[in-house]
Fold these 3 entries.
Entry 1:
Amino acid sequence: MDNDSTRKPASAPTSYIVIPARLASTRLPRKMLLRETGKSLIQHTYEAARRARKPRGLCIATDHEEIAADVRSFGGEAVMTSPDCASGTDRIAEIASRMREVDIFVNVQGDEPEMSGQSIDRVIELLEEHPEAPMATVATPIRHREQLSDPACVKVVFPIHCDAAGRLSGNALYFSRSQIPFAREWNDSLLGAEPPHFYLHLGLYAYRREFLAKLTRLPRSPLEKLESLEQLRVLAAGYPIIVGVVSESSSGIDTPADYQAFVRRMAGKQ
């Protein structure tokens, strides 16, 4: 008969980072291989992801040999995936199907070279702390009006709960490119409110391995098509997404201006 003195503590779930990377990109051609800093953009993202402490490892999932060759040149692991994958999530699901020993897969997007290791660790912790959630992501407070009104900056609303350690989280209600929640009467002081009214969704996700297979089979929802936000497919299908609040904000690289701003920030750190 089992008792408290003989029961072994449950082991922590095993986690692994996958960075999806494709060569084709509309607004910034071949952006993964841009190297004005002396390193390719995908190398910057790989090195940023390596700062996370929880994952057992990481790889870059690509369908293009030119990216794979660049990854191998700086000592990273490149895994070839099917050219038929429609999204980064599909690439991660293909990797997950080969790695059945891993419980949690983290999606660090290839154009997020400044994603912090702490945020990656936090998104993993969210699934460790919330066994009912199949998927997790993170958000950070919005303090500037320009960011709030920018459709390229995705916003998220969720009821906020505080745990014993003072960390904030809650299940996502909705993601949008529009301002949410919408203040009927605007005042600039709303941007400085505590707790914050507005949250920027960061492009970082963690999934349970078994959920990835379900996710790739879910049909695209009308809301997903309308806003062009894949995470709305999850909510439309009735699955929860747990959102954790982090203090740092990373900047994805989508346009030439984004990349030049990143190059200037890197130069400032030298």
Entry 2:
Amino acid sequence: MSGKRITKRQENLYMNKRQQGQSQETAAAKGGISERSGRRIEKGERPSMPRERHWRTREDPLDAIWEKELVPLLENEPQLTGLTLWEYLEDEHAGQFPYSVLRTLQRRVKHWKATQGPDKAVIFRQSVPAGQQGLSDFSHPNTEITIQGEVFSHLLYHRVRKRHCCLSLP
């Protein structure tokens, strides 16, 4: 078990077993960690999780051509995919960009479309089950109503239940 980081899930499982009254040995075995790691967890000596790295681990294979060749293509034809651009690279720069670069290129294209690509059309679909939505209105009628010769002042209530709803956007 040495050399492997203890996950948050393992730590939680260990602590849950300890709270249920199980021994350190049993709880550690069920959590997949050593007893010593269990003691460290209980003392709060657990090291913090590794920080995110902010550096590259290898050279960017698309660095030389991304801005000057691929971005102009995307600006002219935003619907291009990573695979299409990779095929373009195969035609223009035969053998320089292996198939393993495709996934990197797909990620780059996805990021470009999300941050710099054209806006997408927004559609708010409405789906209202029949009988669940309606319109209602109160109004003062123009005709005079009397009860035993006395004028009855009242409001007229009108409700219309929608049977179906459809909305078309231009």
Entry 3:
Amino acid sequence: MKTKAIIILLLVACSYSFAQMRSYTYKREIKGIKGQWNSVELPDDVYGKVNATLTDIRIFGITSNNDTVEAPYFQSREAVTFHQVGVSYQPINQTKNENGYYFSFATTGKSSVNQILLNFEQTNYDWRVKLEGSQDQNEWFSIVDNYRILSIKNGLTNYQFNKIVFQETVYTYYRICIRANEQPRLKSANIEWYGPHHSILNPNETCKLKTRSIKKLLVTQDKRRKETIVDIDLGLSVPVGQLKIGVRDTLDYYRPIVLEFLTDSFKTEKSWYYNYSPLTTASTLNSIEKHEFTFGECVTNKLRITISNNDNQPLELHSFVVSGHNSLLIARITKPATYYLCYGKTDGEKPNYDLIEISRNIQQLNNVTLDNEQFVDTNRPSVSEPLFTNKVWLWGLMAVIILVLGWFTFRMMKK
């Protein structure tokens, strides 16, 4: 009876192992595995076949004994975040001459800075700013010049652009000159560094954006609502997190804008209907700031831009650039096997691996490639194929059955 129980357990274990892979719809063989840590970038055509949170992805390996092993992994995109780091400072001077009003600040001179946020008591202003940096207050270097800051507050509009953004610098002293007809009453200033947190795999490598191809672009004017509507079709569902808009108009403009992404769609007898969800709120397309919008990444194949023109002429839009971060899977592979990237499972839950902390000690990372996509036939019996298409399994199973039957027959004859 013990022998019979062991055989049953072995058959159940084999059935469960192969059923693991067959519970996923697609698989791709992983090529070029070397060492313990291997990375693979998800192709664009994978995102439309997995859920939005990418939890239905697994890496399975088939050993020479037809055993199934699972390789743990983590997504590098999960470990990359944007940080805003404040820099401590002391205001040291506030003066005025024929060039304008000056505000000077002293820092430790050890931290990188790429933006300064100015808060004034005034709520309506339109000023030009010059920013300089120095190490000793004797020699000053220009960082930005003729930079415009603006604040409008009335019954119809409440808009502020009071952030000076520039290339990363390291100075001990910063000096701001404001050209204004009145005394700017500065309440506070935030000196900061803002940018993507460096990858945990390589401190010198930052998270790079990938430009998405636009399959179809449609710009329409809704005269009744006084809106410009731009529909962007990417063709494939891919991660998007940034949008750049090119505008030819050179005059001042200030237009509220809504960015949306497609969440689902359904077809009726007449046509298709699309449901969109907002990506950003309270955004504006204006002549002062860069026409660059960064938002929380989502996986979608369609974007919609709605620009409110009010009683103004529609803007002349000439280009659109959509970008996003592709997911990079970092897998720890320790057992020799033929490994597959498996994906596409409606009820797939996020795996729980102990890798994030361990991954900080990765010294060498090997880049692998993926073979062509294969469809997994989920309707096949999970046991029949590995047992009876492999002759070793067939003869082994027959030998075990003969031995068990012979043993029971011998016991019966003995009694």
